[in-house]
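From: lab user (bench 3)
To: helpdesk
Subject: output format question, protein + NAP

Hello, I'm new to running complex predictions and I'm not sure whether the block I got back is the full result or only part of it. Here's what I submitted:
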Amino acid sequence: MSTRTAVITGASAGIGAATAKALAHAGFQVVLGARRLELLKPLADELGGTALPLDVTDADSVASFVEQVPECHVLVNNAGGARGLERVEDADEEHWRWMWETNVLGTLRMTKALLPKLVASGDGHVITVTSIAGHEVYDGGSGYTSAKHAQSALHRTLRSEHLGDPLRITEIVPGMVETDFSLNRFDGDAERAAKVYQGLDPLTAEDVAEVIAFAATRPPHVNLDQIVLKPRAQLNGSRFHRQ
Ligand code: NAP
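Helpdesk reply: Thanks, we reran it on our side. This is the complete output you should expect:
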C-alpha cells in the first residue's frame, strides 16, 4: 500500500505533537501545522515529516497551508484550548472569541479546506479532538464548553453529510490530560495550572495519541465514531478523586 498522509493541527506541543509521533511511527507521512515553527521544525525533521506554519484562525494561513499539501488521507483537528475560567456573569468576550475562533472556526476552516483531498484519497478520515467539555458543562467553563459543544456538533454533522463517501469520522473525547493546556488557560500562571493535576494521575498526551493512532489504523470499513477516555480518578468535568 502507498504511504498515507496525515495532517495534524496544533502539532507543536501536547496532544498534537504526541499524535504526530504516533502516526509517523504507524507509517504515515506526517504534515505538522502550528504557529510556533521553531517547535514544529525539529519534530518534523525527527519524524521525516513536513512542518508548515499554520494559524487556524486566519483564512489566508489555512489556504496557503492546504496549497502545500498535495494529498491528505487523515486530518487530525487538534489545535485548540481554553482561556480563563470565569462564571457567565463575569464572562470575558476576548476569551470567548479566542476559544470560538480556534476550536470551532479553526476546525471548520481546516475541514472545509481539506475535505476535497480527503474524499479524493479514496479512504479519508477526519479525527477531531473535542473534549468531555463538548458533552457536559461545569461552573466557570461556559466559554470552553460551548465552543467544544459546537466543535463536536460540527464534527458529528460530517458523519451524516458524507455517509456514502469514502470518509471516516472519529471524535476523540478526552478528560484531563497533562499538557500546557492549563498553563495557557490561566495565562502562564504555573502554580494555578499545577493545581489542576494535583493528587491524581492525569492522562498523558501519549495516552491520547495512542488512541488516535489506533482509530487511524483500522481497516477502511471500520469507523470508530466516538472515543471517550479519562483518567481513572476522573468521573466528569467537575468530580475527581484526589489523594
Ligand atoms: P496545548 O499543549 O496547549 O497545545 C495546543 C496546541 O494548539 C499547540 O500546539 C498550539 O500551537 C496549537 N494552537 C493554538 N492556537 C492555534 C492556532 N490559532 N493555529 C494553529 N495551532 C494553534 O494543549 P493540548 O492539551 O495538547 O490541547 C490539544 C487539544 O486537545 C485542544 O483542542 C484541547 O481543547 C483538547 N483537549 C485538551 C485536554 C487537556 O486536558 N489537555 C482535554 C480535552 C481536550 P501554537 O501555539 O504553536 O500555534
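A quick orientation on your result: The longest helix spans residues 93-120. Let us know if anything else is unclear.
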